[in-house]
Amino acid sequence: MNNLKTELRIGNMVFYQGTTFGNVEISAQDLSDFITGKFDKIGVEIKPIKLTDEIYRKLGGNFRIDEGWITTDDNGGIYCCDDDDQMVFCPPCEFVHQLQNLYYSLTGNELKCAGLV
Questions:
Q1: Same domain flag for 63 and 102
Q2: Which phi-psi region, left, alpha or beta, contains residue 78 (left: φ > 0; alpha: ψ -120 to 50)?
Q3: Interval 12-40 mean pLDDT
Q4: Is residue 72 part of a domain?
Q5: By residue range, what is the domain housing residue 37?
Q6: How far apart, in whole angstroms, are the C-alpha atoms of residue 97 and residue 113?
Q7: 60 lies in the same domain as 102
Q8: End-to-end CA distance of the chain
Q9: Residue 84: predicted pLDDT
Q10: Which of 56, 51, 61 is nearest to 92 (CA)?
């Protein structure tokens, strides 16, 4: 995983450790506070949520994009396939926010995860 502070976008699903919030979409204010270190001062940590097979299925499994799909292989790798089944390996998505960012980059739309993760 790269630096979480540079990967997160507003609306990404994260885990708030040290609170009763659990898994939530990060707000603009919380993202700003996380990046500037304000959360460190009050004992709250923002952690990425591991992308498991179960979560992937809850999110809908294979995702339709403009002219293809985002899909997985038997080893859990994430691929983009065009409508002719040509596969291109995508950056690894180990965490939910990385899949959300990939989906957004390819479609311009948010991958909604609230209540599913």
A1: yes
A2: beta
A3: 86
A4: yes
A5: 4-47
A6: 9
A7: yes
A8: 19
A9: 72
A10: 51
Q: Do 26 and 5 form a contact (C-beta atoms < 8 A)? A: no
Host H or E run for residue 17:
strand 13-17
34, containing H or E segment? helix 28-36
**Count of domains forming the chain:** 2
Nearest CA-CA partner of 105 in 76, 86, 78: 78
The pLDDT, as a whole number, for residue 1 is 44
Q: Choose between 32 and 44: higher pLDDT.
A: 32
Render pLDDT for 62-88 as a digit per residue (tens, 0 to 9).
776 666 777 776 666 676 777 676 667
Residue 16's identity, in one-letter code, is Y
More confident residue, 7 or 63: 7
Phi, psi of 56 (to 5 degrees): -55, -45
- Using a cut of 0.85, tell me whether the model's pTM lies above it: no
Handedness of CA 24, 30, 33, 36 (dihedral sign): positive
Q: Is 87 exposed, middle or buried (0-12, 13-18, 19+ CB in 10 A)?
A: middle
Range 56-62 average pLDDT: 76
